[in-house]
Description:
Chain A contains 13 helices and 9 strands. By secondary structure, chain A is of the alpha/beta class. At the A-B interface, helix 9, helix 10 and helix 11 of A face helix 1, helix 3, strand 3, helix 4 and helix 9 of B.
Amino acid sequence: MTRARSFELALAKLWEEGRISGEMHLGTGEEAVAAAVALAMLDEDAIAIDHRATPVLTALGVDLVAMLREVMGDERGLCRGWGGHMHLYVPERRAASSGIVGAAGPAAVGFALSAKRLRKGSVAVALFGDGAMNQGMLMEAFNLAACWELPVLFVCKDNGWAITTKTTSVTGGNIVERAASFGLATWNVDGGDLESTGTVIEAAFRHLRTKGKPCFIRAECPRLDGHFLGDPLLKIAHSPLGEGKELFSNVVSSTVSRRGGGVLSRTGSMMGMLNVLRQARKDTRGNKDDPLERARASLRGEREYLARLDANANEEVAAAVRHAMEGAA
Amino acid sequence: MTTRKFTAAIDWAAEQLMADDERIVYFGEDVAMLHPPLYGRFGADRVMNAPISESAFVGAAVGAAMTGLRPIVEVMLVDFMGVAMDAVLNHMAKLEALSGGSWKCPLVVRSACGGGYGDGGQHEQALWGLLAGIPGLCVVVPSTPADAAGLLASAVFEDGPVIFLEHKLLSETWLEFMGRGGRESVGFDVPADGVEGDVPDPLVRTKLGTAVTRREGNDVTIASLGVGVHRSLAAAAALAEDGIECEVIDLRTVRPLDRHGLATSVEKTRRLVVVDEDYEQFGLSGELAATLLEQRLQFDFARVCTRHTLPYARHLEDAALPNVQRIIEGVTACVRAG
Lengths: 329, 338
């Protein structure tokens, strides 16, 4: 977990420095899930990942220098500079990410089909967010895995957000019940708590390996760095009169312009906006809901061990960053 | 005239159109956050955040258009049209033909497109040629704020479906959202004349299927659209110093295509260079050559397009996109060949 967090923070710094282009979706808040999944996976297993692939790849032991070079657009990188952080592919680990929401589901079903025919006893994992739970392709993947009896673990990292929209405001029903209705075995877990997450993921892998049938875990995780770095929603939420001022004043002025919705629906959109901003302020790195802080708290008595863990992780990542920079354009 | 930025011009046009016509509803992913003026003014009943369910909400836009509404449905990025392809390819595009003309589908799909900010090959495609290859769709690609507003005004009142593509490099909000993220440590080659300009106020419709000449010249016709128009104009200015006079045609809509306007120019110059950010093979550039050959024109031809999947690394991406240097080389080769 500390390695994964340290790596994510290094990515944030590189992005701020302009060494990573485009979007950068950090997986801060998902480290407990990433660590537990990586721990349960064997060499022959396969994993399809969403746009927050770096924590689990770090935990799986993928070369940090190769990943850093990739996200910095270096032709010596993991995918020769062609992929970037949303398209990280590690064929030798059968690990593939995607920038299309929900795409991990069908891919993992295919991975599991190969596993069943070519690598008996091995399994496939799909990692995705709660936003993906409304994608048809993911629902179809649940069904396909169920009716073909394939060993797929679908892990929904539920951080409450679909980009900048609260997922509950665009989701009908309950997502665990939804998965269960396809005939999947389901678990609901606090994804910020390493111990219970580890226990549930272990149980799910046991289910896959012994029964050969699909299952689903909803792991609730905080989203500590917004949808992506530079998320405008966080800017308005944290600084409505500073960086977010323009956007905020746009809403205010439009609610009073002539011809349009009635007073109720206009006030409704105002209140909706304020509610979203209030929610966006909630999750922050280092607060009590941060999975890393929670894991640290459980090891409170072992300060030296913790300090050594942090120091080692930070040192390893710093060395990887230095190494990755060598000879970079 | 009012000076407006590119995306602000589109949002302003949408706002005017929605104020005038109750049938227009607006929905898509994150639209409340992306278009606060629309959300604030018309409320959550007409400006609706959709779940990340492109196949469902684009399909629903088709159904709504069939039964009286005029939806503007936003598919965040054109790349995600892949998820909604059935609604696009088999339903909105086919309804009028398959119903023998008795049922129409008046909707606009608004979508951000294009590269030049390092986001990788699933988020930066152009795809206008691919989409325009489907009979039954109109495909619009504005290059200035005035055209963006004017073409949206026409698109909303079309009888059939219109794909309205908004290049992220021209859009102040999309480039900030996807590329800059508040950083001063990154820079982009943004065409100044595309990102901000005078927009007629009140709103004036720009007819679909009419190209416009952005620069006159006798030696070579360059046909392009979107950001490519601005790159072509920069190349034309450089080429003029070497005595090559380019005529730069902004197609503005891919389908319907202004075949006549293009032919008139090429008849004069006898040379055509197509500058197209969409994929090179089996697309718009080949179609332009074919339409002129069908009109029995004789001309020299070159194309500067995107040849393969866009790489993430900025330097590889810049080389893959139709940049000014590649256009200069393409035009020079075309002139030398003749």
